[in-house]
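Lab notebook, bench 4. We co-purified these components, and the gel suggests they stay together. Before we commit to crystallization screens, I want a quick structural picture of the whole thing.
Request: model the full complex, all chains together.
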Amino acid sequence: MIYFNSDYTEGAHPKVLDMLIKTNMEQTTGYSEDEYCKKARSLIKKACKNDDIDVHFLVGGTQANFTVISASLRPHQGVISAVTGHIHAHETGAVEATGHKIIALPCGADGKITAEQVADVYTAHVEDTNFEHLVQPKMVYISHPTESGAIYSNAELTAISKVCKDSGLLLFVDGARLGYGLSAKGSDVTLKDLCELTDAFYIGGTKVGAMFGEAVVISNSAIKQDFRYIMKQKGAMLAKGRLLGVQFSALFEDELYFEIAKKADEQAYKIADACKEAGLKMFSESVTNQQFIIFPKSLLEDFGKKYAYSFWEKFDDNNSVIRLCTSWATTDENLDQLISDIKNLKI
Amino acid sequence: MIYFNSDYTEGAHPKVLDMLIKTNMEQTTGYSEDEYCKKARSLIKKACKNDDIDVHFLVGGTQANFTVISASLRPHQGVISAVTGHIHAHETGAVEATGHKIIALPCGADGKITAEQVADVYTAHVEDTNFEHLVQPKMVYISHPTESGAIYSNAELTAISKVCKDSGLLLFVDGARLGYGLSAKGSDVTLKDLCELTDAFYIGGTKVGAMFGEAVVISNSAIKQDFRYIMKQKGAMLAKGRLLGVQFSALFEDELYFEIAKKADEQAYKIADACKEAGLKMFSESVTNQQFIIFPKSLLEDFGKKYAYSFWEKFDDNNSVIRLCTSWATTDENLDQLISDIKNLKI
Amino acid sequence: MIYFNSDYTEGAHPKVLDMLIKTNMEQTTGYSEDEYCKKARSLIKKACKNDDIDVHFLVGGTQANFTVISASLRPHQGVISAVTGHIHAHETGAVEATGHKIIALPCGADGKITAEQVADVYTAHVEDTNFEHLVQPKMVYISHPTESGAIYSNAELTAISKVCKDSGLLLFVDGARLGYGLSAKGSDVTLKDLCELTDAFYIGGTKVGAMFGEAVVISNSAIKQDFRYIMKQKGAMLAKGRLLGVQFSALFEDELYFEIAKKADEQAYKIADACKEAGLKMFSESVTNQQFIIFPKSLLEDFGKKYAYSFWEKFDDNNSVIRLCTSWATTDENLDQLISDIKNLKI
Amino acid sequence: MIYFNSDYTEGAHPKVLDMLIKTNMEQTTGYSEDEYCKKARSLIKKACKNDDIDVHFLVGGTQANFTVISASLRPHQGVISAVTGHIHAHETGAVEATGHKIIALPCGADGKITAEQVADVYTAHVEDTNFEHLVQPKMVYISHPTESGAIYSNAELTAISKVCKDSGLLLFVDGARLGYGLSAKGSDVTLKDLCELTDAFYIGGTKVGAMFGEAVVISNSAIKQDFRYIMKQKGAMLAKGRLLGVQFSALFEDELYFEIAKKADEQAYKIADACKEAGLKMFSESVTNQQFIIFPKSLLEDFGKKYAYSFWEKFDDNNSVIRLCTSWATTDENLDQLISDIKNLKI
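Here is the predicted assembly.
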């Protein structure tokens, strides 16, 4: 079985693993107060061209999401998200478990929301005669890239950021696959931009070369305050924090993070091209490592014998939407085989 | 100013007030363990024709909602509600503040959801390959009458109840205006039915003759267990609980509760008739004490000088939806004046 | 049976009840935005000699406690309380249910904590090498009078307040029986002082003449912000808010609140005197309406046939601590009978 | 600097690391549904001599604690713990953040609580006339070994378990250092016993050879139900779950887990012996890998230049309690140097 179903089917990028091996028996202090975490913070600040940020290392995406959101909101405040946003759709109510409502906005197949939608939510709230009976919108959550692989342009992000600032809303970007987004063709967003446009975002490691780990970057001083307490409370402060420092040092030394993301994106484009060549339609236009394909149900069983894929949703009676992912770990050999098999499909 | 904006603009029905006055200086034990609460429980059981229920007295509707829901669910479980349901739309995230997600379903202007919708949510959940990443639907919340004054038929409630039982879901009915629903023309639902079809529901007092108070009726033994602990934790156990016992005794002695509800419903029908006669269109078909009218914006300012109404929502550029309510306290004098003024509107 | 077991065995003070009767059929807007609430706020501000406070009306004490605390703290912050404090001992974990730990301090039979204890907690926290692994102390909760009827002197409160200000802690005073405390012999604390020394406190109505209700007074601007949202979320915003406005107007017109508290305190002193005369020992020195008496178990059964009392705790094998309360409702007739019976006890 | 301050100063045991390296590029399904997790579950069941348990792999101890507790309790229920218990003292209110109070019991320097204490809490609760105003004790949390390195005997555990069963309480054992406890001299407790005596416990990996990870073992069917949903909600379901399966497979193949724990325990005994020989007093009698020593403050500065230690608490004006830990990673070379330096202390 060849796995294209997700971007977390292998362990760590060899360079990351090497660093873990090399440092394994070193003794360090715990809880991310070691030299490797310091170094990783410093490398990330450099990559962000920003010294006025706090960088924290957490273990996973759901954890990063609810820890940041819980650190940011008062009890009556909620977070705006696309209805397909990971916090709304795939985290078993983790945000609600910290007491906060998610204000879900409709979105297209690309999973993006717009500055205008955010502005409308805010205006509707403040103009409601019973506004105190409603959850107060206080934060906007977006994923970059989105759940369906789309990216925001710099102009779109800037517009959302402006609405947020004008309305006293916080902007938080889920970057579980950030590398694949920043390295995508047509992307004009940088880490530096994210520091300036958002109050907090994170640099996903788990899906982009790390064994595990997410680097949360905070620009907003209110969220910065006491963030480590809240990490500890949420089970998000790893005892051997240096494991995260070591991994992010490896990823941000020599721009490894971007290099491997770019390669995976390009591999994904080849899958998309092959699909189109074979006569398959794409469900959404993704420029990142996830590709969403409208696949005839009659062919899926055979395809699934050789390739692990993700079932995304029903398209119509004859077709399913499936997801195929590349990652830092995708081998050209497996890719070539997949492409060849796609091209040979009898559509 | 004459108030038709809501059904909580006055104090208590005179008979309820009389009982409060008469018992004012009596000494009783606290926390609803007094003789008046016992009597009220007994009267409600009789009205329900059911001895196998627990009856608890709480202060308000939001409190009743989150106390019952919190008592019923484990952390990963959520509650299904119409998108217009009070818990989703007008309680400042009170349910989420207890840790639970609301799974919102679309609904028409009547605010009702269907057995089929519930079954679909359940099926979609159990068939999802990643079901453990989703909030588990465990309870269905409906209002009877709904936020927009509609009522469920016995057949509809029975169908929802059956889906719930078949799927291991709990059914909870918000009865903040229950009297107006049970007394509505065409209603074929009784308190006895509610005991049998639901796991918990409440008999709203605040809007139906009481000064304040809601009587929660529980059929399900798992929700019954330790319910008073959870009331206390949620601030829902009144020290002078006898105030609630006294009031519900007054309301369920001689069927006062239903008598006053019926009268208010009939007053509301007269408003609806007058509106139609005047050429106004109703936003939804309500058979209860709330009427929702599509009202020309050009006439609203003048109308609002004399009558307090509730703005419900924008209808189009020229019209608003407004709500007019009757209640146990609506005088025929005020009603006649309103009807006459509506009929004289220059539509 | 004559009830001296608590101070919530009757309904409302006649003057309060009269105002409720008189205003019963008036129509007002809801949610405490009516004229009676305005008036009550204005009277309380006058009594506090302070215009820079926010006044909100809630239904009960547990509710007031967790609403204020939840409005004040971030997730990792906790509240310091005497181990006998109501929030720690008798609210079924209501504060924890909003996510916050109570940091419990030992205290004597008087239920008081000291500025020094608070300073020690703060210092221990900031000096702990693992402070981020500990709940951050952020608020001090005291009751005035305490659970066992003792009062703080102005000097003691000022000292606690100073430690709080110096350490960035908030000070919150539970005033469920505040009237009895401010009117006690030897008290040198005023409402004005409380506004200046605390960040929030409340004026208990339920136990001091109201049918129900607590007036929360907030000096701190961060707690003021959006407080009504949080009230709504916690079920603490009464639909017919005017009921609370009416009651607190009655209580603060002509200083009724203090007059009835003073009388109850004096009645309580007579009970204490009678006990001492009879040879009974007091468990604690209370100058308020609750008296705690070390009572021989052999005499309790007979005593309990005529008088309802509260069992407080075991004292030793032969004696129990019991509580006897007066209130605004205690009649001189019942009091005289009790005193006479106490004096006749065969100790 | 040589680190004896904690048992998480290095990475993973070489055999664990080897398995991670060897499997790094294998493709597996996510979320602990892979073959390595299956194998690890099977090995643990074998080690437990019990097939009727569920085994789940989580990342860290705080996370394991609040996930199990949150999965087990209804909102009004609390968990009994020694006042020094990790959940009470060192997790930034993680359990309270899920809504539950910790009922803290006094304990000696050994950190243990007794069956009698638990029985007393239960009895006091059910006999309290206001029991519904108190948090209902529902679970007992103990650590084995305790925070201060002591172990429970089989008889002690059996007695606590019996009280729990008799009183309807759940028993949960924090086994962050379980290996060091089960392998300690004098221990008569086995994994099999823990399965039978507790409702849930966990086998700590982070401090006993794993890079990270805790294996939660559940015997109680109510806690088993839907546990994976709750893991996901709490951020405790690792995307690359196989990392945990691989590690626990390595640890439970050939009893590596016990072998390395036993060696560390024996190294710790040598430290204790050296201390006693040098004239130092032990703060508590620990038979596991942590040793607590009353250390003259005058000597600490010099000692701290060479060795990292944990400051535990102040003992008196002249002495501090410090903790020295061994672990699977402690080298004999470092140990010999420490022992020699301790013996040369000028007490």
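The mean pLDDT of chain A is 97. Worth comparing against the SEC data before the next meeting. The first strand of chain A starts at residue 2 and ends at 3.
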